[in-house]
Design goal:
Layout: H1 18-25, H2 33-45, H3 49-69, E1 74-78, H4 88-95, E2 100-105, H5 108-118, E3 124-128, H6 134-138, H7 141-146, E4 154-158, H8 170-180, E5 186-191, H9 201-213, H10 223-227, E6 233-235, E7 263-269
Parallel strand pairs: 1-2, 1-4, 2-3, 4-5
Antiparallel strand pairs: 5-7, 6-7
Length: 270
């Protein structure tokens, strides 16, 4: 397989990446055939996966607009993935010029493309780091340059927590990040779940197995398990709900059934 010019030499282009699979679902061009093949295998079980990802991105944009409208001017997006149109810095800086955004991801392609997209934008940056090591994220010079932890921050954990296994203590990582944030900060979460998927669970498990096969297990948590991530936060209306029903821009009944897969919510730190 020929390595594209945009692919860092350090990455193994023979192994699928969840970030590049996500890019493929969204119609992006920064993915390899190995990523497309894995995504197509998952879609054999859940053909609506692209719609799930679109609904996730739409929720993220609505949540960012809400945070900016509430006066928050700092955004920390962990597990940010490969930049696509309508990413956090575009939404936040359009709503609040001068808003500061730091992306965090451990995928080298995501980091490399974020760097290219953000070139010349002094109010946005990217950090190569892992959610499972929150102290390293918070201590990063790039985070310290742009994020003042004494002021409210919008912490985005969008479609990332379901890739952290319980043995890696995702609840502890979220709590550590929460405790570092100032009162008035918000937590934005979306998370995969078998609840809401318009398929029998047995069939949906086939898609989950594809992620297990590529050594990126997809942890499907229940609504109650997802709600635990919001401990220490006051949930905003309408609470923890299917993605398409969190303060929608269009009538939810017009959405594809797959847009109601999983859960999303926003909480405020008192």
């Amino acid at each position: 397989m020929e390595r594209p010019a945009w692919a860092p030499r350090s990455i193994d282009i023979s192994m699928p990446s969840v970030a590049r699979m996500y890019d493929y679902y969204l119609g992006g061009s920064h993915n390899f055939e190995v990523d497309r093949e894995a995504a197509r295998r998952a879609m054999e079980f859940m053909p609506g996966l692209p719609k799930v990802m679109q609904a996730n991105r739409a929720f993220m944009r609505r949540a960012v607009r809400h945070a900016a409208g509430a006066g928050i001017t700092q955004f920390l997006d962990i597990g940010s993935g490969i930049p696509t149109f309508g990413n956090v810095h575009e939404i936040a800086q359009e709503a609040s010029p001068g808003a500061r955004v730091v992306y965090v991801d451990h995928d080298p392609v995501a980091v490399a493309h974020s760097q290219a997209v953000l070139e010349g934008n002094d109010d946005a940056d990217v950090v190569a780091a892992d959610l499972r090591k929150p102290r390293e994220i918070l201590a990063s010079p790039r985070v310290e340059r742009l994020i003042d932890l004494n002021r409210p921050v919008a912490l985005l954990l969008v479609a990332i927590l379901h890739f952290v296994e319980d043995t890696d203590d995702p609840y502890g990582a979220v709590a550590e990040l929460r405790d570092a944030l100032a009162p008035g900060s918000v937590l934005v979460v979306s998370h995969a779940s078998y609840e809401g998927i318009p398929l029998e669970q047995e069939r949906a498990e086939g898609a989950v197995d594809v992620y297990k096969d590529i050594r990126n297990p997809l942890i499907m948590r229940s609504r109650d398990e997802i709600a635990r991530f919001f401990e220490g936060y006051d949930m905003l209306e309408p609470g923890l709900v299917p993605m398409a029903t969190w303060r929608p821009d269009t009538a939810p009944e017009d959405e594809d059934p797959y847009a109601f897969s999983g859960f999303a919510g926003v909480g405020t730190k008192a």
